[in-house]
Amino acid sequence: MQPSDMGSLMETLGRDALGQLQLRRFQMVLERMLGTNVFYSEKFGTVGVTRPNDVSSWEDFSKLPFTTKKELSADQAGNPPYGSNLSFPRDEYVKIHQTSGTTGEPLRCLDTEESWDWWAECWATVFRAAGVGPSDRVFYGFSFGPFIGFWSSYEGAKKVGALAFPGGGMSSFQRLKAIMANDITVLVCTPTYALHLAEVAEQEGIDVAGSSVHTTIHAGEPGAGLPATRARIQRAWGAKTYDHAGATEVGAWGFECGEQTGLHVNEGEFIVEIIDPASGEPAEEGEVVITNLGRPGYPVIRYRTGDRARLVTDPCPCGRTYARLDGGVIGRVDDVMIVRGINVFPSAIENILRSVPEIGEFAVDIYRTAELDDMVIRIEVPRGAPEEVAAAAENAIRNALTLRARVEAVEFGTLPRFDLKARRFTDHR
Ligand SMILES: [Zn+2]
Predict the structure, then answer these.
(1) Which residues does residue 307 pair with via DSSP β-bridges, in sequence order?
(2) How far is the CA of 260 from the centre of ligand 1 (A)?
(3) Contact 367/376 with Cβ under 8 angstroms?
(4) Contact at 8 Å (CB) between 126 and 255?
(5) C-alpha 263 – ligand 1 centre gap (Å)
(6) What is the structure's pLDDT at 3?
(7) Assigned fold of 1-333
(8) Residues, CB within 5 angstroms of ligand 1 (ion)
(9) For residue 67, what are the β-bridge partners?
(10) How far apart are the C-alpha atoms of 115 and 119, rounded to whole Å?
(11) What percent of the chain has pLDDT over 90?
(12) Distance CA 329, CA 226 (A)
């Protein structure tokens, strides 16, 4: 029997059968785009793929070239305003969103009515797996703009019958009042913002841990998969915290089940691969490569997400056969920093700092002085003795990473706050 938190029988299919279905669906995507989608027709023409039947096995699939964000951006710049990765006449598209543009010009992506509905279905999978349904009231702590993040979630809420409250254009205090007044049960926002809201609540004397919020779902940036960050959000909100992963170019591809044994990939709608970012060969841990199966009007095929993760394919205790990313998205493939000869991942530093309960917001700067690398971490200590907390953080980092960092406590409220794509790490070298 199918558990109630699943929307589709696909979720428990044997992996061979699932693979066959994915391949068949991929051919259906090819059928609808080859010939009309200039970007992919030209790209695949170079490897002799001109008909859907040219990809009839996983071996054929593995010979398809990867797609990068750089390529999509160059294509958009060369064919303004939307590029040539469009399979249908422009009039068929009804939604436009764009990437946040943190690494260059924003990339504009279009959806048809059909693919917008697909986005919502993918989010329904996220909600069902987190146990969200008709009795829930979902609040979005997000400034609704052209970034797709929470729009698709907002659409998805209606698929599971939940009531959706858009929290755009409000201050954090106004959002908190709305959460309390509407007996909100589910908070959807970035992990950073969930912590910030809890911080404001504490200053204002609002008891969010005692509120009706029983579930928080996080997207827009990694973090909810980090054990210490997750524990902190759960404690602050008195709720169960779920991680999610998605991208404007790709779709809402990752979700967590109640067992929380990693981030499931929605393999009914996406093909996931992990590659060694240097060689492009399959790997257990490396760069996440994704192909979407429900967006034929703006497909991405073997798309290099830049996300770093480790793939696990054994069955989950929840009953799903969908693969999982162990610990979620661990970071970006290009975000490793070499400090004094040691490889340091920002996620590792975040996890350490979040496990010191007295530390609030933080910022990390790396400098080079006299040929030596210096890592300076500024922390806010809303409660507790700042000097002692800074010393404890220095110790924790030295023990975990054998790295000496200088930790300085700064005045509360002086470090930047973020509601999307937090940027706490700056390499000045
Ligand atoms: Zn599971």
Answers:
(1) 332
(2) 7
(3) yes
(4) yes
(5) 8
(6) 53
(7) Rossmann fold (3.40.50)
(8) 257, 259, 316, 318, 320
(9) 303
(10) 6
(11) 79
(12) 9
Strands 303-312 and 324-325: antiparallel
Q: Which amino acid is at 339?
A: V
Instruction: Report which of 92, 139, 87, 144 is spatially closest to residue 114, judged by C-alpha positions.
Output: 92
- Domain residue spans of the chain: 1-333, 337-427
With 60 as the cut, is the pLDDT of residue 1 above it?
no
Q: Which helix (H) or strand (E) holds 172?
A: helix 172-181
Cβ(139)–Cβ(188) below 8 Å: yes
Global pTM reads: 0.88
Classified by CATH at the fold level, domain 337-427 comes out as GMP Synthetase; Chain A, domain 3 (3.30.300)
How many other CB atoms sit within 10 Å of the CB of residue 235?
Answer: 13
**How far is CA 239 from each of CA 215, 235, 245, 264, rounded to the nearest angstrom?**
5, 7, 20, 20
Q: How large is the greatest C-alpha to C-alpha distance in the chain, in angstroms?
A: 67
Q: Each residue of 48-95: pLDDT tens digit?
A: 999 999 999 999 999 999 999 999 999 999 999 999 999 999 999 999
CA of 187 to the centre of ligand 1 (A): 21
pLDDT band at residue 344 using 50, 70 and 90 as cut-offs: confident
Which secondary-structure segment (H or E) carries 128? helix 113-129
Q: What is the mean pLDDT of residues 141-168?
A: 94
Ligand 1 centroid from CA 79, angstroms:
42
Ramachandran angles phi, psi of 144, nearest 5°: -65, 110
Span from the CA of 349 to the centroid of ligand 1 (angstroms): 27
Cα 255 to averaged position of ligand 1 atoms, centre (Å): 9
- Phi/psi at 172 (nearest 5 deg)? -60, -40
Closest CA to 271 of 96, 55, 48, 100: 55
318 C-alpha to ligand 1 centroid (Å): 4
CA–CA dist 82, 105 (Å, integer): 12
Task: Tell me the CA–centroid distance for residue 216 and ligand 1, in Å.
Answer: 17
Q: How far apart are the CA of 323 and the centre of ligand 1, in A?
A: 9
**Ligand 1 center to 319 CA (angstroms):** 6
Length of the chain: 429
Q: Give the residue from 380, 383, 378 showing the smallest Cα distance to 412.
A: 380
